[in-house]
Amino acid sequence: MSREQILGIIQKSRPEFTELPDIPSSEDDGQLLTRFQEAVQNAGGTSQIVEQKDSIADFISNNYPDAMKLFSDKDEYGITSSPQEKILNPGDYQDIDVAIISGELAVAENGAIWVTDRFIQHRSVWFLAQHLVIVIQRHMLVADMLAAYRQLKTPDSKFGCFISGPSKTADIEQSLVIGAHGPKSLCVLICN
Amino acid sequence: MNHAQKAARFIEDIQKTDWHNQALWFVRDKRDLAAGSVPEWEQLRKQAEQIKAHTLSRLDEYLQQFEKQALQNGTIVHWANDAQEHNRIVYQILKEADVKKLVKSKSMLTEECQLNPYLEQHGIEVIDTDLGERIVQFRHEPPSHIVLPAIHLRKEDVGELFQEKLGTEKGNNDPGYLTNAARLHLREKFLSADAGLTGVNFGIAETGGFVVCTNEGNADLGTSIPPLHIACMGIEKIIPKFEHLGIFTRLLARSATGQAITTYTSHYHGPLAGKTQHLILVDNGRSQLLGKTRYQKALSCIRCGGCLNTCPVYRRSGGHSYGYTIPGPIGSTLSQEKHSQKLNSLPYACTLCASCRDICPVKVNLDSQLYERRQDGVATGVFPKRKRIAIKLLSIILQSPRLLNMTGKMARLMISKLPKTLLYSTLNTWGKQRDLPRPPKMSFQDWYIKNRKNKK
Question: Nearest-CA residue of chain B relative to A17?
């Protein structure tokens, strides 16, 4: 059996034991919000501080006036999602113009936001939507990826993703193009 | 043709070489900016190096832990000894699920195993969905860089290609326009594919999960729409704990492209209800490499491509000059595992400048590995013949004071007396791009005898 063969060779060939390093904790410089917003911008996204959750629906209608089909993963955002009954398969979200989803953790050093599929059946909408909006709360901010992973401790969902900025590519002559296969824009709404 | 010969062809187009060199150095520059913005950068590198070293020292235990956890998550785990077995396993999974169309995101491992031609021979339509990979797939050529597959092409080349393959406007080479054409073309593929295949950046022993880092969204479209996901992973991609991702995700994208992080860092811990997730652990020579003290550190590689971007030889010869799945410093040392005869020129595709070691996020000693590979080449007789003859000749001359003096005298005479056309003839390979040094009037020995000998 290949498994036994491979493990057998490794047991004989593995190098001498070395210790795992100690990894000290990250530091919080108190500038998390500023750094986070800067990092989101560097990643090609935008961010906005919103005073209350009910202003989200207004924000969407003001900033995406041409959006025909919307998706929202929480009723409290006050956005009417496109009829859910029509969604049988992950691909059925292909016509979504703007998806408004909820983040669980946000990382200041790189503008990344942790999202999981705990509250959603088809995560395909995060990638099929033409534009993505992620809603977070200010208290979700941590300094860096180490702090983020230590806070998460272990994954409690089948799928989780750190999303930083809109989809992008520089595969054609190193020219950065925002909007590759995933969403063409990303806006982070930061609630107090 | 060896690397030097292919490189000579590459640099015939000086303009294109300069452009290629600048394009890659630009990426190196971005890496420097990103690394410079993290005060604890060198500490991170050290931690990453140590985590990898520890993991390799207990690789069998971590692989077993990983498998146990993955199985508990509902992931189906397979083990492949070599490339052929890997390909057979993938095909078997696809056949059983009656898959006709497969979307693939970037995986150098599947490139190494030559998966695409194997599947195509067996009647499966394989669509590479990373933009750069799709471009080279259309052109029937291998990628020339592990992170930037189409870096060797200008936008005019892509414009022409897409005009033919996707019906884009003639003469429109705007990268935004071309990318959008690919977006529309590939979206249809994601929506109609039967299965999605990805590589793996990190496998986590503690949780049995695996992580895929991408920018374009193609990998995630490929795994979130079709019901079947196959992930292919080299056994060296294991890391012990979930929190170790906190180190590696800080290093990977910064070292690769200068981004603080890739757009998507996706964590998979088993399939959703009604879906299937397979993971194939691939050896293909890695367990053998693990036993080689001088080279085992190459297994720490996280495939960032940083060493390619910084290597002066890679930048001026291009990925296709190497003749191996992975070019550049890391490719050159890995290639010697199975192809030390055929690719005996690769340890010499190197100036030993050690820039690669300098930027490697996990501190692989690439330059000394290439130096050692040269020694091994001599010991095992795969040392290139031309060099062997030249070195043999040189060693005869250097071992004899009489011959050395005679040769020195002749050389000084020739350089000062012979006409340039003879001196820089095709036999003088050293003199192709260099001027020969001006000869001194006399050798040191003659000067010593004249000025210092018999004096107090």
Answer: B57
- Specify the 3-state DSSP secondary structure of B319: helix
B291 burial via Cβ count (<10 Å: 0-12, 13-18, 19+): middle
Place of tokens 């230590």: A150
B114 sits in the region (left: phi over 0; alpha: psi -120 to 50; else beta) called: left
- pLDDT digit string, tens, across residues A85-97: 678 899 999 999 9
Judged by CB atoms closer than 8 Å, whether chains meet at A127 and B149 is answered as: no
Q: Which residues of chain B lie closer than 8 angstroms to A155, CB-CB? A: 207, 209, 242, 267, 269
Provide the mean pLDDT of chain B: 95
Pull the structure tokens for residue B419: 């006409």
What's the gap in Å between the CA of A84 and the closest CA on chain B? 17
Summarised one tens digit per residue, pLDDT across range A116-130 is 998 888 999 999 999
Q: Is A181 at the interface with chain B, CB within 8 A?
A: yes
C-alpha distances in Å from residue B5, one per residue of A97, B1, B114, B367: 52, 6, 25, 22
Residue B132 CA to chain centroid, in angstroms? Answer: 15
> Quick check: A82 pLDDT over 80?
no
Model pLDDT for residues B226-237, shown as the tens digit of each residue:
999 999 999 999
User: Residue A83 CB: number of other CB atoms within 10 A?
Assistant: 8
Residues of chain B with Cβ-Cβ distance to A177 below 8 Å are: 175-176, 179
Tokens of B249: 């995700």
Of A9, A111, A128, the CB nearest to B287: A9
Query: Chain A contacts of B35, Cβ < 8 Å?
Result: none
Tokens of A152: 């998460």
Tell me the CA distances in angstroms from A170 to B62, B71, B149, B178, one per residue in order.
36, 37, 11, 12
CA–CA distance, B122 with B103 (Å, rounded to integer): 16
Q: Please identify among residues 362-401 of chain B the ones whose CB lies closer than 8 Å to any CB of chain A.
A: none
Residues whose CB falls within 8 Å of the CB of residue B273, separated by 6 or more in sequence, listed in order: none
What gap in Å lies between CA B194 and CA B189, rounded to an integer? 10
Model pLDDT for residues B194-203, shown as the tens digit of each residue = 999 999 999 9
Q: Are B262 and B250 in contact (CB under 8 A)?
A: no
| Helices of type H across A23-113 | 32-42, 55-63
Residue B387 has what pLDDT? 79
**Structure confidence by residue, pLDDT tens digits, B37-91:** 999 999 999 999 999 999 999 999 999 999 999 999 999 999 999 999 999 999 9
* Residues of B in Cβ contact (< 8 Å) with A171: 130-132, 135, 148-150, 179
The residue type at B274: G
> How high is the pLDDT of residue B155?
96
* Angle between helix B59-73 and B41-57 (nearest 10): 90
Are the beta carbons of B247 and A146 closer than 8 angstroms? Answer: yes
Tell me: pLDDT of B381 over 90: no
What mean pLDDT comes out for the span B409-433?
A: 83
* Token duo for residue B234: 């080299």
Q: Which of A40, A27, A35, A189 is nearest to A112 (CA)?
A: A40
Query: Is some CB atom of chain B closer than 8 A to the CB atom of A16?
Result: yes
Residue B150 has pLDDT above 70, yes or no: yes
B72 touches chain A (CB under 8 A): no
